[in-house]
Design a protein that fits this description.
The chain is mainly α. It has two domains: 46 residues; 88 residues, Arc Repressor Mutant, subunit A (Orthogonal Bundle). Helix 3 packs across helix 6. The relative contact order is 0.10.
């Protein structure tokens, strides 16, 4: 995934060594984990940006297009989009404004709430969502650099971290079939 020559030493491992040397042993692994997650996010985001740049999309705008494309009719209340994307309403408003300007989505009045809006995916927006998904699948999602078992472990560990931080509730067990 990296596009430049690798460093001769892992700076996060060196930072961990320094943490221990300065007496912060109890926090050293946590610092290493947090810093590693943040660095991994930078690396992955750079790859995502490379894949989406030719399509004049950011990941935030792509996520909104993809979310709308997943719905049956390409329509979703703006508040629902905000909740599902787990971002601040202003971020969705900004993404919608740009997508609307580009003719990829439009806003319609909510039929039951005069203060709310329904986001509607246009045909061009649906086409771009599919093109962008193909680009991301080819350049990023299918090339994470981990084996299947490692990916499953990573997904599980990150889900536990997110759940522990209050990101989502544990799923309820499904009832036994009749």
């Amino acid at each position: 995934m990296a596009r430049r020559a690798p460093l001769p030493v892992d700076p996060i491992a060196e930072a961990r060594r320094q943490w221990v040397a300065h007496g912060w042993t109890a926090a050293a692994d946590g610092m290493s984990a947090v810093t590693s997650i943040m660095r991994a996010q930078q690396l992955v985001l750079a790859e995502v940006d490379r894949a989406l740049r030719p399509l004049d999309l950011t990941f935030a705008r792509y996520e909104l297009l993809r979310l709308l494309a997943f719905t049956r009719e390409g329509r979703l209340p703006m508040a629902s989009a905000t909740a599902r994307l787990q971002v601040h309403p202003a971020s969705v408003t900004n993404a919608v404004a740009r997508l609307e300007q580009d003719g990829l989505v439009r806003r319609e009045p909510h039929p039951h709430d005069g203060r709310a809006a329904i986001l509607v995916l246009t045909d061009d927006g649906r086409d771009l969502a599919e093109t962008a998904t193909d680009a991301l699948n080819d350049a990023v999602f299918s090339r994470v650099g981990l084996e299947d078992g490692q990916l499953a472990q990573l997904i599980h560990v990150l889900a536990r971290l997110r759940q522990g931080a209050g990101d989502f509730r544990p799923p309820k067990p499904l009832p036994d079939p009749l």
